[in-house]
Amino acid sequence: MTATQPKSKIHLLPLFALATVPLIMVLGNSMLIPILPQMQEEIGISKFQASLVITLFSVPAGIIIPLAGFLSDHYSRKVVIVPALLLYGAGGVVAGVAAWLMDNPYGVIMAGRVLQGLGAAGTAPIAMALAGDIWSGASRAKSLGIIEAANGLGKVLSPILGSLIALLFWYAAFFAFPIICIISAALVYFFVKEPKKNGQKQSLKQYVGALKKTFKAQGKWMLTAYLAGSVALFILFGVLFYISQILEEKYKVADLMRGLILSLPLLAMCSTSLITGAKIKKNMKLMKVLIVVGLALIGAPLAIAAFFDNPYILLGLLVVSGVGTGLVLPCLNTLITSAVQKEERGAVTALYGSVRFLGVAAGPPIFGALMDTPKLMFLIMAGLAAFCAVLAYFLINPGKGGGDTNPERYEKIEHERKLLTRMKARA
Fold first, then answer.
1. Which domains does the chain have, with CATH numbers?
2. Which among 61, 36, 33 is positioned nearest to 47, based on CA atoms?
3. How many Cα atoms occupy the beta-carbon half-sphere of 13 within 13 Å?
4. Mind giving me the DSSP string for 309-375?
5. For each successive 10 residues of the chain (427 residues), what is the average pLDDT?
6. Angstrom distance (rounded) from CA 245 to CA 35
7. Among residues 359, 285, 257, 185, which one has the least CA distance to residue 37?
8. Which of 29, 251, 393, 421 is the most exposed place for a label (fewest CB within 10 A)?
9. d(Cα 375, Cα 305) in Å, to the nearest integer?
């Protein structure tokens, strides 16, 4: 096995190290959702201000992710991931100290959340690109499925973990971030071996030109995939925020029980992601089918939920919606990371991560604004999921013009280009 060829066999320790990155990234939002009602009460803020705890983490991440992707393509993935994790942890310290020592901590907490968001920009999307560099073919699909499952596992554990930590004091979750970020950074630094770059670095002009060619050839299906991923997470985090609020306001559910309830749809998503990643392998047509079916499973339960007020029925419907999300995300991850050569993979994957973050950022405030009209809210979201399913059905066409996402073809092109570069260098 040469340094120029991605590995086909998955080694558990590097994969475990990479999987900690999206797991920790998702803690940045999910761990705080169950404690937002308590935060509102403790520091005297409105529901909208509480939702900004999520938004001001996700928006900076969404904006900076493309820059992180370029830096990871131009230098290395690990040079971006490790400092980003440390910045993420530092933002947690800022927010935690403010909540602990200040009488009016809201502004400084928000500044800490912005720092965390800037750090998060260099985490999960770049880890996905690095996994795409290290593994190929069916192993790539499996590794990305496991990484997405780790992301889902973070979503499952984080409401419970956030509720448990809040039993100490409500802002304790902020101090958990630096601990787990340092551990993840150390794992990536010591145990993940990044494939060496071959040939000369692209100039910014060459790099932008290559990206333009990629989007000109494949823009329709890639933009559809970006939209689908963003909408899936927009709905997921919006619904989680909605459930957390009604459990607190309407049913007076305690923090820990609220965290357990919130974890059920996420557990469905996590387990489905793991199975999906293991089964899809290199089957692009199957991925398209699962994306369309998954989006339908996200939307249909929401349409039904519009006509029921029973919280148990609502929870069951949201579990089905979680299964749909678990079908969609691993397929999108594999399609997007396989669609381009390694030199542009960081940017393309980062743009995908950017729209995912922006979807997460938009969910809580929009769902919060629509909470007084839940029937309308659920019907709008169901319609949005259905719209994405229709777009995916018509525009994601593996193997056809404008949608050729065959990873073996791109790996062959990439390998041939590297051989040509080496031959030119020897000449």
1. 12-426 (1.20.1250.20)
2. 36
3. 7
4. --HHHHHHHHHHHHHHHHHHHHHHHHHHHHSS-HHHHHHHHHHHHHHHHHHHHHHHHHHHHTTT-HH
5. 51 89 80 85 88 85 84 89 96 95 94 94 87 84 81 75 85 92 95 78 72 81 93 88 81 76 83 86 88 96 89 85 92 84 75 82 85 92 97 80 46 53 55
6. 10
7. 257
8. 251
9. 8
